[in-house]
Amino acid sequence: MTDRENSWVLVTGASSGFGKEFARQYAAKGRSLILVARRLAELEALADELRNRFAVDVIVRQADLSSIHVIVGLHQYLHDHNLVVDVLINNAGYGLQGAFLDEPLESSLAMIDLDIASLTAMTRLFADDMRARRKGHILMVASLLSFQGVKNFAVYSAAKAFVLRFSDALHRELKHDGVVVTALCPGMSDTGFAASARQKLTPALKGVMMQPQPVVRAGINALHAGRMSVVPGFANKLIAVLTWATPRRFHQSLMAKVMGV
């Protein structure tokens, strides 16, 4: 194989939402794909669609990435089959709306396992390979909520704050090794996240909701332009600026009203 022929895009959480859209947009560019998620049937259906529409190579791996052991096994499998991951899309994540003390401890810890621990493990393993090749791209899917603590999203917003700051640091650490690390910070998007997170959709949230296509496009463009981070959508950019420019008591109170909490 040539380097281009053995260059793969690995998308986690690929069975729905942003993950599925990342797969479609990279397939449209002719890129070979490794799709990872827990739901095998959805992955296989997406793989068939992409092979038929774009004539690209697609590998499907069913995996529960909340287990570090599974992540190590996935990395070893790809290494053993000489599959070179040039682009890693760290998209797998879990969110839940609700008062911290009203949710089971297991739910909060599961969020930390997937949103923080597994993302860290995926990044450590694949970034090491990229540094050795002096080439690679890693996109971290954070959130607009990563800019502040949000009532009834305490663990989720804190977890995404970790993702953003982790990404910022690695962007500077790895850029001289030929590895680009970029954080994507989407706001409210029509991905099915709200339903799975039991999130209340207020009129304000509905008004700023974005479709996944432009969000993913912004992430891909920022990654391949070598940017540190990107906030897609004009309204979301305003919220990010407001967070930087106002006292915490003001913007956190405002965000609580927007979120209907």
From TrEMBL:
<dbReference type="GO" id="GO:0016491">
    <property type="term" value="F:oxidoreductase activity"/>
</dbReference>
<comment type="similarity">
    <text>Belongs to the short-chain dehydrogenases/reductases (SDR) family.</text>
</comment>
<dbReference type="InterPro" id="IPR002347">
    <property type="entry name" value="SDR_fam"/>
</dbReference>
<dbReference type="Pfam" id="PF00106">
    <property type="entry name" value="adh_short"/>
</dbReference>
<dbReference type="GO" id="GO:0016020">
    <property type="term" value="C:membrane"/>
</dbReference>
<dbReference type="InterPro" id="IPR020904">
    <property type="entry name" value="Sc_DH/Rdtase_CS"/>
</dbReference>
<protein>
    <submittedName>
        <fullName>SDR family oxidoreductase</fullName>
    </submittedName>
</protein>
<keyword id="KW-0560">Oxidoreductase</keyword>
<dbReference type="InterPro" id="IPR036291">
    <property type="entry name" value="NAD(P)-bd_dom_sf"/>
</dbReference>
